[in-house]
Design goal:
- The complex is a heterodimer of chains A (264) and B (447).
- Chain A has 264 residues and is an alpha/beta fold.
- Chain A contains eleven helices and ten strands.
- Chain A has a six-stranded mixed beta sheet, with helices on both faces.
- The longest helix of chain B has 39 residues.
- Chain B folds into two domains: 140 residues, no CATH class; 222 residues, MetI-like (MetI-like fold), CATH 1.10.3720.
- Classes of the chains: A alpha/beta (264), B mainly alpha (447).
- The complex binds adenosine-5'-diphosphate and magnesium ion (MG).
Amino acid sequence: MNDMRLTERAVTEKAKMSARKVQVYYGSNHALKDVDVDILDKTVTAFIGPSGCGKSTFLRCLNRMNDTVASARVEGKIEMDGHDIYDTRVDPVQLRAKVGMVFQKPNPFPKSIYDNVAYGPKIHGLTRSKAELDEVVETSLRKAALWNEVKDRLNAPGTGLSGGQQQRLCIARAVATGPEVLLMDEPCSALDPIATAQVEELIDELRSQFSVVIVTHSMQQAARVSQRTAFFHLGYLVEYGETGTIFTNPSDPRTESYITGRIG
Amino acid sequence: MTDVIAGAVPAAKSLIEPDARTRARNAAERRFRMMGIAAILIGLLALVTLLASVLGNGLSAFRQTYIEMAIPLDAAVLDKAGDRDPEKLAKVTTLGYGKLIEASLEQMLADRGVDTKGQTAKQLMGLLSKEAASDLRQMVLAKPDLIGTTVTFPALANGRVDGFFKGRVTMESAARDSNISPEQLEVAVLMKEAGVIKTSVNWAFLTNPDASELRPESAGLGVAILGSAYMMVIVLVLSLPIGVAASIYLEELAPKNRWTDIIEINIANLAAVPSIVFGILALALFINFLGLPQSAPVVGGLVLTLMTLPTIIIATRASLKAVPPSIRDAALGVGASKMQSIFHHVLPLAMPGILTGTILGLARALGESAPLLLIGMVAFVKDYPSSPPEGFFDPASALPVQVYSWTQRADPAFAERASGAIIVLLVFLMTMNALAIVLRRRFERRW
Ligand SMILES: Nc1ncnc2c1ncn2[C@@H]1O[C@H](COP(=O)(O)OP(=O)(O)O)[C@@H](O)[C@H]1O
Ligand SMILES: [Mg+2]
C-alpha cells in the first residue's frame, strides 16, 4: 500500500500553501512554535499528535479562523500560491471561500439540505441563476457522496440527517464554494466506523480536485488516507514527510514514541 | 445476577420488607412531595381568590343600565335659525337638551302608565345620569340631520340606579344617600317592569373617556387604553431595535474586557432598579430638562423604554448565547462575514427567545404604574389624544394608572369600574403572553 502511495506522490510536488516560522500565541500561551510546512497540491496531508499539541491551532491558521479568537496572535508567514494570506489587504472572508473547513462535530445549519449547500455560493455570488445554483448544489452533493441519499428530500432539514450524512453535508457545503484547499479538523471523531469509512473514501476522491488537510487522532486513519503526515508535539512540528516514512521509519525519537504508543 | 445482589445485601435483610433506613427515606420523599403539592395549592388558591375577587367586583362594569326613550328633537329649540349651522347649533347648551329629555321622560312615563309615586320632574330626572344631556347633545352635534326627527335615545341611568339593579345599592343605603331616595328607586323598579329601563352590554366602558366624581356611570377606559397603546408602540419601536443592537454588540462584537464586564453588571443592575426611580429620572430629564409635556404618552413611553431595555437586553443576550458556537463557525468557515453569520444564522435562531423576552418586557411595562404617577399621567383627562404622531404629545392616561385613580374615588361605583379596568388589563396581559407562546412555537418549528 505504501509503495502505491510513493508512485502517486511523484506526480504532485507543487506546494499549494507554505508556512514559515509560524508562531501562535493565545494571550501569553505560546501554543505553536516555529512551524514550517509545505501543503502540497492535490494531496492529503494528515496532522497527528497528542491532544493540545497545536494541530487545530495550525489548521485554523490556514484559513484565518484564528482571527475570530480574540486572544489569538499569529506571527510568521503563510502563503497560498505565493501570496501572503496574512497580508492586510487579504479579506479573510474571501480566503475562507478558497480554503474550506469541515469541523469536528457535524454542524449543518438548521435549514434545509439545499439551503445548507447553497449558502456559500449565494453569499459569494458564485451563481447567476436558480438553475445554476441547483446545479452547484447537485454537483457538491455528488462530490460529497450524498446526492443519492438526499436527492428526494432536498427541502428536509439538514439537522434531521444521521451523523455521518450530516458530516458529508458539511463537506458538500464546503465544496460548494469551489475551494482549493479543504481543511478537516478530526472530521470522523463523532462518527461510527461505517460513516468513518465513507468519509475516508470521500477524502480520497476529493484529493483529485484539491488539497485536503486532515487533523486526526487516529494514526490508522492518517496512514489510510494521507500521503503526507506532520507530527506535532507540544507546539512544535517535530517531523513532516511522506506518510509511509513517518510510520515505518521516523527519524525523530518523539515521533517513534508517539507512533508506538509511548506518548499520547 | 441474583447471587451478586444476595451477596451484596446482608443476609438478614429481606427485599420484600423495607428496612428502617428505606422507610425513613421513603417517608422523607413523601413529606417533600406533600409540601410541594401544598405549595402549589397555596399558589393556586391565591390566584383563584384574586380572579374571583376581580371578576366578582368587575364583571358588572361591562353591563350598564339605560333608560330608553323617544325624544322629539324639536327644531324650534335646537336650531332657531333653521340653517343647521354647526356654530349656532353648538350654542344650545346641555341645559336646553336637559329640558328636552325631561319633557320626553314625563311624556313616556305617562304613556306607559308608570306610577311616578308623586315624584317631581326634577326627582325623576335624578334617575338619569347627569351625562345624559351631554350625550344627547354630542349625538345631535355629530349628526345635525337628526334635528326635526324623533330619536330613540338610550339615556345612561344614574350610577345609583345602575348600582341598584346590580345589587350594589339597596333601599336601606338609598335612605341614607343624598343622591337617591327609596321612592325614586321604587319608580325605577316600576320602570324596569314597564320595559323602560334596560340593561345591556357596556361598550362605552371600553371607549368612553374618564368621567368626573359625580358621573361614574359614564366613566370609561377609552383614553387609558389609547394612552397605553401609544406607550407600547413607543416602547416597542425604541426598545426592540436598541436592545437587540446593544445585545448583538455586547455578545458578538465587543472585546471581552473590564469595560464590557462593567457594562454587563450595570445592565443587570438596571433591571433591578425600582420603577419609581425611573419615574424620578423621567421627571428630571424628560420633563424638567428637555421640557417634554407632562401626562404625555411620549414621556411615559420613554420611561417605560428605559425600564424595558434591560429586560430585552438580558433576554436577547441569553438567546444569542444559547445559539451553539458551531453555527457561527460553520458560517465563518464557508466565508460568511461576521455580520452575515449573525444576521443569517445566529439572529434568526435567537429570534423566538428575543420575541418572548420583548413581549414579556412589554407586558411588564403595560402593567407599570409607579413611574407614570410621577410624570403626571394620573391627571384627569377627558379628551382623547389625537392620532399619532401628534397624539404622543397629548395628555393621556394609562390602564394601571386609571385603576389607581378610580380606587381613590369615594363613590363605590368607581370600585366596580376599577375592577373592570383590572379585567381589561389582565386580558391584554394574557393576550400578550399567549402571543409570546404562539410566536415561539411558530418560530421554533421553522427550520
Ligand atoms: N481558543 C483558545 N483560547 C486559548 N487557548 C487555546 C484556544 N484554542 C487552543 N488553545 C490552546 O492552544 C493549545 C493547542 O490547542 P489545539 O490546537 O486545540 O490542540 P489540538 O487540536 O492539537 O488538540 C492548547 O494548549 C490549548 O489550550
Ligand atoms: Mg483539536
